[in-house]
Specification:
- The protein has about 475 residues and is mainly β.
- It has a single domain (about 5-460), classed as Neuraminidase.
- It contains 3 helices and 33 strands.
- The chain has helices at about 85-95, 110-115, 240-245, and strands at about 20, 30, 40-45, 65-70, 75-80, 130, 135-140, 145-150, 155, 175, 185, 195-200, 205-215, 225, 230-235, 235-240, 250-255, 260-265, 270-275, 285-290, 295-300, 320-325, 335, 340-350, 360-365, 380-385, 390-395, 400, 405, 415-425, 425-435, 445, 455-460.
- Bound molecules: fe (ii) ion.
Amino acid sequence: MDLSRFPYLQGNYAPVAEECDWTHDQLRIEGRVPDTLKGAFLRNGPNPAYEPNHYVYPLDGDGMVHGVYFDGGRVHYRNRWVHTPALKAERRAGRRIYGSIGRPLPVPGEIVRDGGDPSPYKNTANTNILQHGGHLLALWEGGWPHELTPALDTVGPYSAGGLLKPGDNLSAHPKVCPDTGEMITCSQPFDRPLYIVQVFDRAGRHVRSIEAALPWKGIIHDLQITRNHVVIFCAPVVTNPALLMQGKFPMQWREDLPMKIGVIPRAGGAARWFEAEPFFSWHFCNGFEDGSRIVIDYVWIAKLPFAMEMGTGVESQPRRLYRLTLDTATGEIRNECVDELFCEFTRVDDRRCGQRYRYGYAAASTMAKQSEYHGYNATARFDLDTGEVVLHDYGEDANAGEPVFVPHGESETDGYVMAFVTAEGKSSLVVLDAAQPAADPVARIHIPTRVPNGFHANWAEGLSPPA
Ligand SMILES: [Fe+2]
């Protein structure tokens, strides 16, 4: 593959070619693997199997899941592509068939008859991986989820119990309510400004759809739950599917539009909309209710990162943790920077999702040349009560992925914070103590093969290691 023309396939963004297994005895381990954990740290991300015709980060690239299984102090690493119908069709043909989100290609009839995905937009299944209701799902916001086995073999496209019809989608950013066990996510029809909250019960059964008309069709990537609401940001980005059909970038940043904040009752009912000064955001950290106020912590970006436009350039706008406080009684909004640190991929102890909390975690950049390079080389812990930020810096040239909190006790600091880190081409899973993230890692599990930069990770409780 010649990947030299793709900025987001360089360095540790470059894909790996093999699916591997490394057993405990083949892994070099520094420190002590926690022996009370049973489950797996799983992370999804793009890993194109064939040289792309074009590459739009963060949407293109076949999903590959990297997992480290923990069981009684022993670990096992495995990585597997999500073997989508589109990727399987390309494997059978031995070449790339599908185009990019920015430059889709018509899919030949024989590929469709052979079981390939008929859509010109390849469902790459590359964005997130989540276990809920007995299903392990690889998620991509433009199409159906794909179900995986605990061993990361692909079962196939997942219709969510018949809810999803051909052409439907389900968000890559579900939230799981720690009180009810519900998974709350959304569908967004491709061709009209409509947002459909989808609620699944603890057992994974679909129980409710709540429709909210959007002010315009844009990019709504993440959602945040609070005890009673779903909160979404509808930024001043307007998409025009007709432009996409002409092979043009379909999104436009509109200086004349505000940020619209949607507040949708989880129990059902009409959405309320509030207006703020424009900004863009990919990811929430957490949110909670405080009387009539809703507090939302999120990663602020000044504008939609257009550097990804048509696959050219590297995105370099600052990204910072902000706190937005919305008084639903008066409509008053305060939107404040929590800290100047450059960060992304914000997470919390998921047992506090939608509730009052103290600590947030993020992948962060300590590097001086942040404006020229947007890699993350540290794990940050934000104390939202005191403003203190604690950093674990992996070194200037390191790449640090999304951190995930894995509990071992009741409090917000009784846990581990895990992230994949790659430095000088060598990858490891780093296990930090949430109570003292700057200290030497509890464990560092060195993986003989590289783990490319990716997107979202989660802990899958109870998942058994491959036999
Ligand atoms: Fe995301």
